[in-house]
Design a protein that fits this description.
With about 400 residues, the chain is an alpha+beta fold. It folds into 2 domains: about 60 residues; about 260 residues, Major capsid protein gp5 (Major capsid protein gp5 fold, 2-Layer Sandwich), CATH 3.30.2400. Helices cover about 40% and strands about 25% of the residues. The strands form 3 sheets. Strands 7-8-16-13-9-12-11-10 form an 8-stranded mixed β-sheet. Strands 1, 2, 5, 6, 14 and 15 form a 6-stranded mixed β-sheet that branches.
Length: about 400
């Protein structure tokens, strides 16, 4: 009798990972409740209980990472061959020419297309434009794995920078009677914000044997190779970038106490020390939430790294309910006090003077600017026998509404 081999689909793996994550959080709550009970009865917790809680906390983080990875894999549609039949002739011609260039270095087809379109993709930028389907897929993947991009506004531009006008003072207004005179009012004062697009690059390598293999989907390969490199670099820049040859991160803005907030600066709520207060630590989170105006709170999110998230998992409200809650279902995020929690590893750890937690409506508060076009330059000479693919995209970013983001600063 031939044994039956059971296979698990990706959907089954995701469901299993979600169940593991839910069980890990229940175990974490039980262990933390035990620790709190020991503190109440003996004024200190048992060392064994603390070690158990630390192990469960690490297992909870690992389960979350596995769930995120599987969810991302499940959301990736196949590129290439299945879509060829639905694309128009121009897209199909561009794709065929691009494949010839990637596999053998034959660029005549791409040059002919550029001449037909009266453009020069291999000018000062270097390289050739990838097909629209590949560029769209790369940007879609970046939105899935780049945490700040996923919650921010994104604008696509064709030039080198995006300029946006904003009003520093609105027109004068007032109430008048039905027949009263309407005095002339002062006009609004406008200023301009500029978001330049900086060059971001990755350089995946392949063997010629891989490129000669007709079964290999070149579109999918290039998207998978550059997504991690692009996401890592731009995620760091969106948080801490200094604006020199990279986007300007929101933490690079001038930061003042929230009572002294003014346009052009981010307001910060202080914790009173280098850590959460020992008594009622969650009160500073409540203060942070209500430092944001009501109009921004409706779509607000918490942004922090996993170590900060680990610290706040232990917080409870006055009724004994945990403030942090795991995702209610697949595809959703964890919540803190009912607001989504975005895990950004480039956020600083809890330390004296650090702004380890951000809270705000990033759709209104932060802008990501993508210049249209993803370029690839084939280099078979620099690292023989490997073929390098110098892949570039232009991206910028910066705060566009300083009232939409508040920070929690661990300082007196």
């Amino acid at each position: 009798m031939i044994p039956v081999v059971e296979t698990k689909s990706l959907t089954d793996d995701v469901a299993s990972a979600f169940e593991d994550f839910a069980r890990a959080f229940e175990a974490f709550k039980d262990a933390n409740d035990t620790r709190l009970s020991e503190i109440e009865t003996r004024l200190s917790s048992d060392v064994v209980t603390e070690e158990k809680l630390t192990r469960i906390d690490a297992a909870l983080d690992e389960a979350k990472r596995r769930l995120d990875r599987l969810s991302l894999d499940r959301s990736r549609p196949p590129l290439g061959r299945s879509a060829d039949a639905s694309c128009d002739p121009a897209q199909a011609e561009h794709k065929a020419a691009f494949h010839a260039y990637m596999r053998s270095g034959e660029s005549a087809g791409l040059k002919r297309l550029e001449e037909k379109a009266l453009s020069a993709g291999s000018g000062p930028d270097g390289g050739y434009l990838v097909p629209d389907t590949v560029e769209t897929e790369v940007l879609r993947r970046l939105s899935a794995i780049s945490p700040i991009r996923a919650i921010s506004s994104v604008r696509v531009i064709s030039g080198g920078q995006y300029k946006r006008a904003f009003s520093t003072s609105g027109p004068a207004t007032g109430w008048v009677g039905e027949t009263a005179a309407r005095p002339q009012t002062a006009g609004p004062t406008l200023s301009e914000m500029s978001f330049p697009a900086m060059e971001l690059y990755a350089m995946p390598a392949a063997t010629q044997t891989l490129l000669d293999d007709a079964v290999v989907d070149i579109d999918r390969w290039i998207a998978e190779e550059v997504e991690a490199a692009f996401a890592e670099q731009e995620s760091a820049a969106f948080v801490n970038g200094d604006g020199i040859n990279k986007p300007k991160g929101f933490l690079a803005s001038d930061i003042v106490e929230d009572e002294l907030w003014e346009w052009g600066k981010l307001g910060a709520v202080h914790t009173g020390g280098a850590a959460f207060p020992s008594s009622h630590p969650s009160d500073v989170l409540v203060e942070l939430v209500y430092a944001l105006k009501a109009g921004y709170r409706q779509n607000a999110s918490f942004v922090m790294n996993r170590r900060t998230q680990s610290a706040i998992r232990r917080f409870k409200d006055a009724s004994g309910q945990y403030l942090w809650a795991p995702p209610a279902s697949l595809g959703q995020t964890a919540t803190l006090m009912g607001f989504p929690v975005v895990e950004a590893e480039d956020m600083p750890d809890i330390a004296a003077g650090s702004c380890a937690i951000a809270f705000g409506d990033f759709k209104r508060g932060y802008l990501v600017v993508d210049r249209a076009g993803l370029r690839v330059l084939r280099d078979p000479y620099s690292a023989k026998p490997y073929v390098l693919f110098y892949t570039t995209k232009r991206v910028g970013g910066g705060v566009q509404d300083y009232a939409a983001i508040k920070l929690l600063k661990f300082a007196a």
